[in-house]
Amino acid sequence: MVFRITFLGTGGGRHTTMYQTRCTGGMLIEHGSGNHLHVDPGPGALTQMNRIHYDLSRTDSLVISHAHPDHYSDAESVIEGMTLGGWKKRGSLYGSPTVIDGDGTLGPCVSKYHIGKIGKVTVLRPGMTVAIDGLGTEICRSEHSDPTNIGFRFDTGNGVVSYVSDTGYSDDIARQYIGSRVLILPVTTPDDLRIPFHLCTDDAVSFIECVRPELAVFIHLGIVMIKKGPGLQAEETERRTGVRTVAAEDLDILEVGDSVSMSRAVAYGDEWIPDTSP
Length: 278
Ligand SMILES: [Zn+2]
Ligand SMILES: [Zn+2]
Known about the structure:
Elements: E1 2-7, H1 14-19, E2 27-32, E3 35-39, H2 45-51, E4 61-64, H3 69-72, H4 75-82, E5 92-95, H5 97-100, H6 112-115, E6 120-123, E7 129-132, E8 135-140, E9 151-155, E10 160-163, H7 171-175, E11 180-189, E12 199-200, H8 201-211, E13 215-219, H9 223-228, H10 230-241, E14 244-247, E15 253-256, E16 260-263
Helix pairs in contact: 8-10
The structure holds zinc ion (2 copies).
């Protein structure tokens, strides 16, 4: 059983997204026996998939945590990939209520046209457990400016890998992730530079002390965080918590099996033109 995450983008927040200081393409998860799940395809997702020569017609499911553009803006193109250019009704879409239905202010994030191309559409709410192509997934609460935003506990078969989507810190939020082997945290700002509904490094320390995972990974890096040096912030977090902590870079790969490893993507180099013949 494979469980491998490619971080297509490690940026987050308005300014990193606008300027693409880091990509904001979310995570591509390979699991089970060759299933592919894309989580939160913000701007940059498509470019990054081309860069690693990933053919998005291999994507089986798409998950969107909430209706902010750094998490969904490339979604319709991913759906076109998943449905073989819109020719075959297939694949699954999972999203919070704002993502799928909208709430009058936020979302919906996917047009009715694209929804009509997908095999199965599921609205996710905290407390639910779903099997995404066989990957057991528990849905968690968040405290965010999209109040329907959700976090995820993926049961890999070799421990739980959690993706905490955008949230402010509270003990109540953090406790949902106890038992995680890997904790992927959106640490938008450095030190104690707290902005509403997001985590700063000090919040990440509290989060990690509550959950005590084997590995913590920082993503969703805001522009002030990037200037400050996410690697240094992660190092300091590791020193304070005693938990191995890394700041991911675009295209880093996390593998979870008997052991947990992070590695840099290989350089592909050449221009890649996939075969799209039927
Ligand atoms: Zn975000
Ligand atoms: Zn957000």
